[in-house]
Amino acid sequence: MITSTGNKRVKELAQLVKKAKERRNQGVFVVEGKKMYDEAPKDRVREVYVSESFLTEPENQKLVDASDYEVLADHVFSSVSDTVTPQGILSVIEMPHYEKEQFFSKENGMYLVLESIQDPGNLGTMFRTAEGAGISGIIMNKETVDVFNPKTIRSTMGSIYRVPFLITENLAQMLIDMKKKNIKSYAAHLKGEKAYDAFDYKKSCAFLIGNEGNGLSEALAELADTYIRIPMEGQVESLNAAMASGILMYEAQRQRRRND
Amino acid sequence: MITSTGNKRVKELAQLVKKAKERRNQGVFVVEGKKMYDEAPKDRVREVYVSESFLTEPENQKLVDASDYEVLADHVFSSVSDTVTPQGILSVIEMPHYEKEQFFSKENGMYLVLESIQDPGNLGTMFRTAEGAGISGIIMNKETVDVFNPKTIRSTMGSIYRVPFLITENLAQMLIDMKKKNIKSYAAHLKGEKAYDAFDYKKSCAFLIGNEGNGLSEALAELADTYIRIPMEGQVESLNAAMASGILMYEAQRQRRRND
Question: What gap in Å lies between CA A259 and CA A121, rounded to an integer?
Fold first, then answer.
């Protein structure tokens, strides 16, 4: 058992929790909690850390029996954890890598294109909702908040393991490439004249969602095939970015389910 | 100008920002930022506080010219503010009160019924989305997180001023009363067999949304007229509570707009 926060492995683990750069350098990220441990692809689990008191529950002991794990004294575990009330299990997971060709290979795929989303909770909620709606993949620019941020990971509720994603330095070029693959792109935009539900999303489609404060950049919006509008009553000027993406993806799901 | 954090008014203001009980006792709440000041119903603004540097912008000076305001030294303002980068304007607003009779008087109203929502950001997002979808009102039980919590207020983006709401000690009784008014209630529930979009929401309706972790209590779910299901692909077990409410309310809006 590791009993000191000065321990080398503990220090390295804390760096991985806190710093996107460390995560990128090592190609790993850290997840917290039983559900995130349980749902992790087993071949991508590099390390498992549990707190001393975690192991006192027989059910917990059973959960980690098949893994090599390291025990941390409770105060050491708390010092590393990103949550207020830690569940007592932390796992270091290898980052996934998705190939562009396979990413876009799905017939009648549905994609989410994110430009500079800043809120980790929003990004995580988008992953969770996207999986539920049946997304084929999420494309983000480099300016989007780190998908491996502990808060993002937590908000995905495990979808981070299952929703394919690409991070690109050139989102505009990606949109041009997608156009060549006959993926129609729809941008929620003030210039949109027709409501979002006036369009057919049963063929390959992509929804473009911009930054929480500023919306889509002009450069990116100009590349969209169609501007759409989410009708808003009252004095609402915009919806939360995750909410807007969810309403669009679920409209696509609705059409695909009902085929109407 | 107030230059000390020990000032009596500053101390009282800080209590209002931090404590739900103080807010309830005084019947007021605190909003931050220019937009929240600007959109506040003028007859409900009790006090306005600005930071010293806020007033150095002529545009800001003009904004508050019509109000009686108190200037706080920047460090005093920061000590009270709930945000990391304060905009420099705080307003104390009288709580609104909605009469039950008027609340339910709208023909073909649409309502959101919330049981024990715990996340302030979720609750605020629900208000914002609800206004956009054209809600008639939101009903919450007392166990729902304080709607006047600064984080909730911020997430509403001003909808707190415009969406009527009721807070009740007896949500079950409220549902029974609503039933008598011919408001059909729909609960997103695992027992739901049909997808949410298989129902007609053009007449008076209410969507029941439960606590983030536990969903709706059995007692409340049993009072619902209909169980509905939000179809989820992949391994998603549930959607974020705010997201679920948004998808349902926007489906109702879609039907009402298109009349299909």
Answer: 32
User: Would you call B240 and A132 a contact, using CB atoms and an 8 Å cutoff?
Assistant: no
pLDDT digits (tens, 9 = 90+) for A14-27: 999 999 999 999 99
| Lookup: tokens for A13 | 């683990």
Could you tell me the CA-to-CA distances from B23 to B116, B147, B149, B162, B181 in Å, in that order? 20, 11, 9, 19, 33
Q: Which listed CATH number (3.30.1330.30, 2.60.120.620, 2.60.40.60, 3.20.20.70) goes with B8-94? A: 3.30.1330.30
Q: How far apart are CA B25 and CA B17, in angstroms?
A: 13
CB A50 within 8 A of CB A72: yes
Supply the ipTM of this predicted assembly. 0.95
Domain residue limits, chain A: 8-94, 100-258
Report the residue of A152, A235, A236 to disrupt the B interface, i.e. the one with the largest count of B CBs within 10 Å.
A236
Residue from B108, B239, B257, B258 whose CB has the most chain A CBs within 10 Å, to mutate: B239
pLDDT tier at A144 (50, 70, 90 boundaries)? Answer: very high
CATH class as words, domain B100-258: alpha beta
**Residue B165: both structure tokens together:** 């709401």
Show which residues on chain B lie within 8 Å of chain A, measured between beta carbons: 39, 121, 125, 128-129, 131-134, 155, 157-159, 162-163, 195, 197, 230-237, 239-240, 242-243, 246-247, 250-251, 253-254, 257-258
Instruction: Give the pLDDT band (50/70/90) at residue A259.
Output: low
Task: Using a pLDDT cut of 90, give the percent of chain A over it.
Answer: 94
**pLDDT of A187-198, one tens digit each?**
998 889 999 999
